[in-house]
């Protein structure tokens, strides 16, 4: 097929850097496919939110195109057109050398040509291009001194965004990727407005997008997390847009607070901190007033919203008054053990250890029955070097619920006194394992405590989880390679029961490792066992393949 009379450089000039790079990504991802192509025209399909039809033609050396995507309704070129044009170029043969072949002008030569032309003619050419390309039109207006907000086509981007939010019914898991691709494209367009300098338009449209995302919760299967990704990106664009054009801090506070207090998607969760400098004292006060008004309107039974608003109360208190402001709020409302634990955590995070110890001692009388509060109080005592007090609280928690989760803080907070508590704790755990048959759990505790000899003994006598056996086998290998290899052989057999290639590959790795642990007669015995496994599974070609790739013995 002859090469069409345009070049990649000219295509870049026609599309602009932003659209060109997006089209280049689509082409690289293999989304474009030529239906037909000649020297002057081509038809292609491009996979986006759905499959779009692109028609390309070249008249008087100028590339024109049409696309069935929503963006192309208002724009002369889109990324799908770029992707199709790049594929058209890639699948074409270079022009043959000779007098009949006119070389395509390259960018450096074209620049030299343009520099020698009449300014009036150049202006006419630019205006002709701008008439078909809103982005170029906006760039020229801005360069001429116009306000970017008055130069961009906000309505076109709004239409694209609203179109991307239309579900047409429930969007299944398998349809979600394409659906969210459409939303990403709309966010691309909003970000392009920001890059052109239309920051206020970008901010308005991201708020519209975030409101639209809330309405999608019941209409889209978001198992893949596409909605969360879109929310994060929209929030990032909004922050950048607001930083570029802060506007009225009170209005900004109202916009942020309304969404932060009601959003099921937890948008603007950290707005008080992220926008603190933009809000200033006036905006922060407005934010706090909105939060407090919402707090007073909640009933005690509305637990979900109370948690959401309580979190915002703490964030705004810290944004206004720092750690002291947050501590003052928490001290004023110490109604539950969670409130008391949060107060100690805040002081510890601020490295105010002495204050945390004083508060913990004062509050133990009220909340000493709470395992949660005892745990955070023990952390405060331990960080202050008061390990005996920390150990006593940690021991109380351990006795109430013996487990790895309570054994760990007992060790970490007891300091030099831990050996005194350790044997008592292990005795309780061992008795509990015997009563309930939870020996695997007891082995996990011993492994965490790095008592591998005792863990091996318990696992050998009572059993353990596969992950524990793997750790123990590798520890045992230098002491007794045959025993370690035997463990790995059993782990391999267990993996084979899954009947999947990944499990076969895992089994092969175990067996190869086992062979490395043994020598002599033990190695011969292991090779024989591997050959037996192959024979038992001769009708599983995937297993045979994985064993061969691992270099295991073959018949």
Structural features, described:
- Strand 1 and strand 2 form a beta hairpin.
- The protein has three domains: 103 residues, no CATH class; 233 residues; 85 residues.
- Helices cover 69% and strands 5% of the residues.
- It has 555 residues and is mainly alpha-helical.
- The chain starts with 7 loop residues before the first helix and ends in a 6-residue tail after the last helix.
- Helix 9 packs antiparallel against helix 10, helix 15 packs across helix 16 and helix 19 packs parallel to helix 21.
- About 2% of the residues have low confidence.
Give the SSE layout.
Blueprint: H1 8-15, H2 17-28, E1 32-37, E2 41-47, E3 51-59, E4 62-67, H3 79-90, H4 107-115, H5 119-132, H6 134-143, H7 148-151, H8 154-164, H9 173-196, H10 199-214, H11 226-244, H12 249-262, H13 271-274, H14 276-297, H15 303-332, H16 337-349, H17 353-367, H18 371-383, H19 387-400, H20 404-414, H21 418-436, H22 439-448, H23 452-462, H24 466-476, H25 481-496, H26 501-517, H27 520-536, H28 541-549
């Amino acid at each position: 097929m002859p090469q069409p009379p345009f070049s990649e450089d000219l295509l870049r000039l026609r599309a602009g850097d932003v659209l060109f790079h997006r089209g280049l990504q689509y082409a690289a991802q293999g989304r474009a496919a030529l239906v037909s192509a000649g020297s002057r025209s081509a038809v292609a399909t491009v996979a986006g939110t759905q499959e779009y039809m692109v028609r390309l033609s070249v008249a008087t050396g100028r590339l024109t195109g049409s696309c069935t995507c929503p963006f192309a309704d208002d724009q002369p070129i889109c990324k799908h057109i770029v992707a199709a044009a790049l594929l058209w170029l890639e699948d074409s043969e270079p022009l043959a050398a000779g007098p009949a072949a006119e070389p395509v002008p390259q960018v450096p030569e074209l620049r030299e040509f343009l520099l020698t032309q009449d300014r009036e003619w150049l202006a006419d050419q630019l205006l002709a291009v701008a008439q078909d390309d809103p982005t170029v039109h906006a760039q020229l207006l801005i360069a001429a001194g116009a306000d970017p907000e008055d130069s961009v086509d906000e309505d076109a981007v709004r239409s694209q965004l609203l179109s991307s939010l239309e579900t047409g019914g429930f969007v299944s898991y398998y349809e979600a990727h394409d659906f969210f691709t459409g939303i990403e494209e709309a966010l691309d367009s909003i970000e392009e407005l920001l890059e052109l300098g239309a920051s206020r338009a970008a901010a308005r449209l991201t708020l519209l997008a975030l409101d639209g995302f809330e309405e999608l919760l019941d209409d889209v299967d978001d198992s893949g997390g596409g909605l969360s990704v879109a929310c994060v990106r929209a929030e990032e664009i909004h922050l950048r847009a607001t930083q570029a054009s802060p506007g009225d801090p009170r209005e900004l506070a109202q916009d942020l607070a309304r969404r932060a207090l009601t959003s099921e998607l937890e948008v603007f969760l950290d707005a008080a901190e992220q926008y603190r400098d933009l809000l200033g004292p006036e905006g922060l006060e407005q934010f706090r007033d909105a939060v407090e008004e919402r707090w007073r309107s909640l009933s005690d039974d509305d637990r979900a919203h109370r948690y959401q608003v309580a979190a915002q109360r703490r964030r705004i208190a810290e944004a206004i008054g720092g750690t002291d402001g947050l501590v003052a709020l928490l001290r004023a409302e110490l109604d539950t053990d969670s409130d008391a634990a949060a107060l100690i955590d805040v002081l510890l995070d601020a490295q105010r250890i002495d204050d945390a110890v004083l508060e913990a001692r004062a509050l133990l009388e009220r909340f000493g029955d709470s395992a949660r509060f005892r745990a955070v109080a023990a952390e405060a005592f331990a960080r202050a070097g008061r390990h005996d007090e920390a150990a006593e609280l940690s021991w109380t928690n351990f006795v109430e619920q013996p487990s790895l989760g309570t054994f760990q803080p007992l060790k970490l907070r007891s300091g030099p006194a831990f050996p005194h508590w350790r044997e008592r704790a292990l005795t309780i755990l061992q008795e509990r394992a015997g009563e309930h048959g939870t020996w695997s759990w007891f082995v996990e505790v011993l492994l965490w405590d790095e008592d591998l000899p005792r863990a091996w003994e318990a696992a050998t006598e009572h059993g353990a989880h596969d992950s524990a056996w793997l750790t123990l086998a590798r520890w045992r290998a230098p002491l007794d390679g045959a025993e370690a290899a035997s463990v790995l052989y059993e782990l391999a057999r267990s993996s084979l029961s899954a009947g999947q290639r990944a499990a076969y590959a895992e089994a092969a790795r175990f067996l190869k490792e086992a062979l490395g642990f043994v020598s002599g007669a033990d190695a011969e015995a292991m090779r024989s066992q591997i050959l037996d496994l192959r024979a038992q599974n001769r009708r599983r070609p995937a297993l045979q393949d994985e064993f061969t790739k691992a270099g295991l013995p073959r018949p």
